[in-house]
Amino acid sequence: MSTPQPAVETRSMVVARGVRKSYGAHEVIKGVDLEVAPGEVLCLLGPSGSGKSTFLRCINHLEQIDAGWISVDGELVGYREHRGRLYELRDAEIARRRSEIGMVFQQFNLFPHLSVLENLMQAPLRVRREAAGPVRERSLALLDRVGLADKAGAYPRQLSGGQQQRVAIARALAMQPKLMLFDEPTSALDPELVGEVLDVMRGLADDGMTMVVVTHEIGFAREVADTVAFLDGGVVVEAGPPSQVFDAPQHERTRAFLARVL
Ligand code: ADP
Ligand code: MG
């Protein structure tokens, strides 16, 4: 059982306190504390298996945590408060809250049988039951924003990996999320396509989107992150501004990791 605290008094977009998560006997998140203020970018770095994806999944209601608590925009993940008591969320409420968080994966997961524009319009129409006209306008504007205004009628298979990932980002934005989670968004891309996706993400950050980004792109993290957190073995080994973590890492494990990826 998790042990959430009632009444999350915070201005932060994301707060994680003492978060633990096990799969069977294997504890993969071992007491993580992290915080992301509105408009800030948190980059998560760490070796494979350190728990980065699991942590994102916990923020996004895809995993139940075993201890500690997470809040998004002042609401406890998995619970609602009523008259000072906590109640577990029903599926419909979980779905509503998840629809306010955008997530972009290494694999783009576009709907192959839908055009680019239809990919963007799908969730606002089907999940939110919004009117088609405004959704279409918003979607076309988003395609323009990610540099793909001319691809509205194309199908995913006709696009490069970098273009597909930019569509995936635009599709997440079509739900007007208050938080964007990225799980190694450029790891599946050919090197020459990485830059165009990072440019879109940089633009989002500049526009004030709150973002949690799992990435091995140190240059991006150094430039865009407000905070970099280095995870290893399910714990935050160290966290701080990029200049501190990259230029003056305090822990041997961070130094060893950076020596391998830089
Ligand atoms: P990272 O994203 O940092 O590479 P993950 O969060 O994917 O790490 O995984 C952390 C650990 O949890 C790994 O040892 C992985 O094998 C394990 N793990 C992840 N998901 C599951 C699952 N659904 N069932 C069992 N073990 C899992
Ligand atoms: Mg991962």
TrEMBL record:
Q: Which GO terms describe its molecular function?
A: ATP binding
The organism is Microlunatus spumicola
Topology versus the membrane, per the UniProt entry? Peripheral membrane protein
Classification of source organism: Bacteria, Bacillati, Actinomycetota, Actinomycetes, Propionibacteriales
Where the record annotates domain ABC transporter, the positions are 14-258
Signal peptide stretch: none
Location relative to the cell? Cell membrane
As recorded in UniProt, coiled-coil segments are: none
Family matches, as SUPFAM superfamilies: P-loop containing nucleoside triphosphate hydrolases
Keywords of the record: Amino-acid transport, ATP-binding, Cell membrane, Membrane, Nucleotide-binding, Transport
Q: What is this protein called?
A: Amino acid ABC transporter ATP-binding protein
Q: Per its UniProt record, what Pfam families does this chain match?
A: ABC_tran
Tell me the PANTHER family matching this sequence.
Answer: AMINO ACID IMPORT ATP-BINDING PROTEIN, GLUTAMATE_ASPARTATE IMPORT ATP-BINDING PROTEIN GLTL
| Recorded family membership | Belongs to the ABC transporter superfamily.
